[in-house]
Amino acid sequence: MKQLYLYIVIGLLFMVYTSGSAQITLSHDLVFPISIHSQADITQVDYPDYTLEEILKIEDSLDFHVLENPITDLGFTDQTFWLRFSLTNDSDQPQTYYLETARPITDVAHLYQVFEGEIISDQVSGDLIKFADRPFNHRKIIFPITLPASSKSGFYIKFQSDGEVINLPLILNDTSSLVSSSFFNQLIFGFFYGILCLAGVTYLFFYFGMKESSFIYYVAYVLSVALLHMNLDGYFYQYITQEPGWFANRSLLIFAALSSLALGAYSYVYLKASTISNFIKKAFQFLFIAHGILLLFIVFFTAGQASYYPAVNALGFIMLLLIIFTIFKSVFSKIHVDTFFSIGIACLTFGFVIFILNNFSLIPNSFITSNASKLGTGAEIIFLSLSMANRIRLLKTEKEEIQEIALMRAEESNDMKTYFLSNMSHELRTPLNAIVGLSKSILSSTDDTSIKNNLEVIQYSSLSLLGSINDILDYSKIEKGDLKLAHVDFDLHKIIQELKLLTNQKSREKGLEFVYEERNNIHTKLVGDPIRLKQIISNVLNNATKFTQKGQVKLTVNTEKTRGNKLTLIVDIEDTGVGIAKDKINRIFDSFSQEQINDKRKYGGFGIGLCIVKALVDLHHGTIVVNSVKNEGTQVNIKIELERSIASQTTQDLMTPAQTEKLMQDKHFLVVEDNTVNQLVIKSILRKWKGVSFDFANHGLEALEAMKTKVYDVVLMDLQMPEMDGYEATEQIRSGRSGINSKDIPIIAVTADTTEKTKARVFSIGMDDYITKPIDQELLYASVGKALYLEKIKLDINL
Q1: How many C-beta atoms surround the C-beta of residue 86 within 10 A?
Q2: Whole-angstrom Cα distance, residue 256 to residue 235?
């Protein structure tokens, strides 16, 4: 019965209040978020523990006044305030809204909703409430409120603080506006905290590298500012403390004091304040002591907590004024002050002033003015970071500067040499692709013996030039440490046969006898890098032929079984050439070195062949031994351990030639190549493939447009092209920009760039294979066949 009387009293008082106080009617025409400050009244009460029932009884005697500004600043206070307003829902359906009020650091915000004389909602949020117990899990203080259909509800909110500033925004959101504002805040705050994190981590590394005190003070300032703003924004409570306690209740004060102290210490060291004037030195020291005393009180004495908030703000403001005074004093004393440092302090001051003016409603409220402190701090950190970058330069001694310049010049020289060698190799391979490709195409299509002989000379000369180009590029890789070995199955007998034919041709041209001897069985499949193995043997054979004027060159190949699945490949190369003197034999593996150093024109060459051989043998964990007698000849012994292939024939050869040819039938290729000569070479190759048709695109953009209008089965992609290169074109294709049906099309890179970095990037962006120029017809045919076969398997699995 008593409860019934109580509800009647509440209902009557509520009716009195709602009949006289302002109210807001919510309809579908409203655009959220909206501020309801103009429709709300607020009053201060002396007793902090009033209940709603007690407030309603004395409501007429309380001094309620309307909130005049969108954000009302109640100042530093430990008093209790009550706020009231009413909302009307004129729709025939219940409506749910989200009320944002107070700052995230407010201790208690207690909302009551009264409907038809009854309290239908009682929600509490704030820093003294566990985050998990909040009515809405958000860093801000947000209350979900539901308005019954076609009704009016009254709302009362109780605010309590332990001394920090109470700001009273009253923002009403619907679901859509709340999500939008949250995403926007995450974007801005993510950028802000990202700047702080980047600056802190970067200059922490600089401190460990240079041991300069200003760096650690700057890092301390950045860290304390980040923690301070995390407190102000509610992130610290949301993710770290999550419930009230000793540290949670003091963290804001601690970080505010530490950020002010760190800024002062950093500025004191950076500006060399102790050398400017004795007054400035003592003023800084006094403020340092004052900050220390305040921190002790914050940590050990709770009773005066209400006065600590204005005290820490006052000390921070005085510290900022002292820093500004020090800057002006330095300028008037003609002491250089870094421009970025001055701009950074100006940004902090400007942001602080705008923030204060906004809190006192002296300027219009907006996102920029309400977050002026954060924007000013972010700009300050950026400019202070730039000033620290300048400080790094100024801290270097003259000797270190000279050493740096010398090191820079050496690195530039080395980079220029490496770039030149790599670029020259790339540029030479492009026309060489045409020479090798077209001569090979003509060679296979003519029966004229004279023409064939001439074309063979072109082939051998081109391959010799290609070998030299490869040596140059490999030397560049060795210098940078980029040389790596492949790990694929290969046929040792096929490699040896190719080397035999090439060396036999060169020997005949010089009137030399070429002897080949084979021991044990070399008709076996091995696992390793066939290109590098061939390069090792070829370079030594080339040297033997080059430095032998009469007599013979002998190649002996042997294999020995070792442990498990391993075998040792033993290659002996002997010649009856000029030989090497004993005092020079230890230098033959050095770059740009020849035994006949004073007679280079007689023998030619770059002098890097054996350097590359030694590097490649070392990569194989093998050995190379050279024995030589002056004017009698040289013997080279190479031992490399390799694995025998355990793959089945089906794995090594995915399809028979007949199956590959059948798979090629009616396939349509897109060749993306900007060089017309290379287009001619590829055209001469593809025309010989039965059942294959093809189109050309001059760059990536043309390729994408072509793939939107036609269906292709394979793309042969050059990498370096104008407009859009092969990398970007491949990424666009894989992302479906050329059509969803072609995003998985096989793409094979065909490039003159043979660097490991390029090869790795090709596969990382989703290409299926990698072929270098000059194009090996058999290798290209095998690569395309493999890609089509794997694509067919993929389609069969999907079906």
Answers
A1: 23
A2: 15
